[in-house]
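Hello forum,

I keep getting stuck at the same step: I have a sequence, I want structure tokens, and every attempt I make locally crashes halfway through. Rather than fight my setup again tonight, could one of you with a working pipeline run this one for me? It's a single chain of 135 residues.
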Amino acid sequence: MATTSTHARFRAAVEAADPEAAFELLADDVVFHSPAVFRPYVGRENVSALLRCVFDTFEDFRYTDELASEDGTAALIFQARVGDKEVEGMDLLRFGDDGLIADFTVMIRPASGLMQLLQEMGPKVKAAGVEPAPA
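Reply #2:
Ran it on my machine without issues. Output:
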């Protein structure tokens, strides 16, 4: 079960724009659920490459709230800008017994902001060769 320090360390790494520190907190077999595609992305290397694209796309990213439960789940609420669109979202983190992030779900609103994110990230994700898990 994770301690609150795991999600706090993840938050600190993201806020410091230190992707490598954030990636160290991902389990080897982490499962990432995107707001854009149904099939998840699996594995630290694949998810790290995808998140690197996110780091390169969001502007003015900031966490505004966090919620944590005793069952190994944390939610980090954020605001950011993608191009001229403001977005709000949530990083839902579930931790494995080793304290690393085992399951990572992102939700984003409004739909117009999500569409802008998809347009800007699409070419970056393709260039990185990141693919969701096969069906």
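The mean pLDDT is 92. If your local run keeps crashing, start a new thread with the error log.
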